[in-house]
Specification:
The chain is an alpha/beta fold. The protein folds into 2 domains: about 150 residues, Rossmann fold (3-Layer(aba) Sandwich); about 110 residues, Rossmann fold, CATH 3.40.50. It has 11 helices and 10 strands. A 6-stranded parallel sheet has the order 4-3-1-2-9-10, sandwiched between helices. Strands 6-5-7-8 form a 4-stranded parallel sheet, sandwiched between helices. Helix 4 crosses helix 6 and helix 4 crosses helix 10. The structure holds D-glutamic acid. D-glutamic acid (DGL) binds next to helix 3.
Length: about 270
């Protein structure tokens, strides 16, 4: 490829906090030649219980901050921001390639389900937005989506209670309304839920495939590299920058717990 067809700028990825690192890890693994700037809005997390208007404002602020850092594309790793803020972001930045997690997750679910009954779990705000059922219906009108808010999963994941008896109990109680809905695919519609995937899988049983949007987002990003985003010049080492809006120490501690394989150094605190 001609060097003029390459773009050394990083890809921006933002989330309400640390959860989006589950998406970053997958993107960093799939695109080892690309550099990333991760922005976690740790001062204002959680987004999952906030109003549409507030989440939209936060999303626009995070995006404009990353744009000023010179990113060539942006990924909203946060499901709540993807559900409530992405339309405004795309309207504000029509020329910037912007990926959310909802479309890719829905595409993966449509490819997975045989019964056309798909479960979706997410934060209260994501579920209230109806974004997942709407996107599923557009992709495949035969799909019947059942969405359920699981607000207790985020704090459990953040405390590192990934294999705790209390977590098992709370996951079982929370998912009980879904267990008799006949779903054969369950979208993990929140950044933190993949961390609880083993317990969620156990509770839902063998006939239910879990759909984690991280790898679906990576597939979509790959497609965008073919269509609209220029890849980084060859032979450059991958660079990771981490920005947070509060308490970098806690961020590093949680990031290491969440992603033992990902080096997290030089976390910088910023104001949006
Ligand atoms: N990142 C959020 C999401 O994926 C979960 C945490 C929050 O509520 O901010 O919806």
């Amino acid at each position: 490829m001609d060097e003029r067809e390459r773009d050394p700028r990083p890809i921006g990825i933002f989330d309400s906090g640390v959860g989006g690192l589950t998406v970053l890890a997958e993107l960093a693994r799939r695109f080892p030649g690309e550099s990333f700037i991760y922005l976690g809005d740790t001062a204002r997390v959680p987004y999952g219980a906030k109003s549409a208007r507030t989440v939209e404002r936060y999303t626009l602020q995070a995006a404009s901050f990353l744009l000023n850092k010179g990113v060539k594309a942006m990924v909203a790793a946060c499901n709540t921001a993807s559900a409530l803020g992405l339309a405004a972001l795309r309207a504000a930045e029509p020329h910037l390639p912007v990926l959310g997690v909802i479309q890719p997750g829905c595409r993966a679910a449509v490819a997975t389900t045989r019964s056309h009954r798909v479960g979706v779990i997410g934060t209260r705000s994501t579920v209230a937005s109806g974004a997942y059922p709407d996107a599923l219906a557009l992709l495949e009108p035969r799909i019947r989506a059942v969405a359920l808010a699981c607000p207790l999963f985020v704090p459990l994941a953040e405390e590192g209670w990934l294999d705790h008896p209390a977590t098992r109990l709370i996951v079982a109680e929370s998912l009980a309304p879904l267990r008799h809905e006949g779903v054969d695919a369950l979208i993990l519609g929140c950044t933190h839920y993949p961390l609880l995937a083993p317990i969620i899988a156990e509770v839902m049983g063998e006939g239910v495939a879990l759909v984690d949007s991280a790898s679906a987002v990576a597939d979509e990003l790959e497609q965008r590299f073919i269509d609209v985003i220029l890849p980084a010049p060859e032979g450059r080492p991958q660079r990771m920058d981490y920005l947070v809006t509060d308490i970098p120490d806690r961020f590093v501690e949680m990031a290491r717990r969440i992603l033992p394989g990902l080096p997290v150094h030089g976390v910088e605190m910023v104001d949006l």
